[in-house]
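FAQ: What does the model actually see?

It sees only this:
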Amino acid sequence: MTPAARQLVRPPLVAVLDYGIGNVHSAQKALERGGADARLTADPEVIAAADGVVLPGVGAFGACMEALRSSGLEQPALDAVASGRPFLGICVGMQMLFSRSEENPDARGLGVIPGTIKWIPTDPSTGPKIPQMQWNRLDIVTADPMLVGLGDEPWVYFVHSLHGVPENPDVVVATVEYGTTLNAAFRLDNVFAAQFHPEKSSAPGLALLSNFVDVCVRSASENSAEISAEISADIGADEVSA
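And it is asked to produce this:
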């Protein structure tokens, strides 16, 4: 164990944003199984103190964005992203990180990942059936710490009618085949976003959430090491000046 890792002697605090939409308890429980001190919260102070933040979501894009803003959690979510701490968006929480959605064109997203949430292409006679509500194989196109240990083509659970189309295709780290190739997971700096439900995806989903917990531990340990170095430097400077 590195000196930095030894400084984190507690489970990482993960704030699961509770803004009154959907069942967020399953995500919280899955994160606890992964080793986190996962807390459902609408408290900006808890969110600001957390080692990592999770934005879940189910239902309609516009309703979720309205609920997030009404609960006063839009700015704390954006502040968490800007802080550089690990941030995870799940399902509609993933979609909310985009700029806009065809589902509710008048609703403004968080704009963290520039791009548009678009309807899954389908044909009335040939399909595919919308929504996609099934297990499907994930195609990992870019290596990512969040995807370590999931296998080459892990089966994960989807429930969605739309998918993310980012302005920069390089942020796509995983896709899925459903009538055509759909984008399924994204990475932009400290933000990871998944269209599928890891908390409902059995072993691969738990592995992903455990990876998020590990990323939170490393991030918190690095921050602790930086703070310790700054304190040591300040003490050294005071001793020299004395």
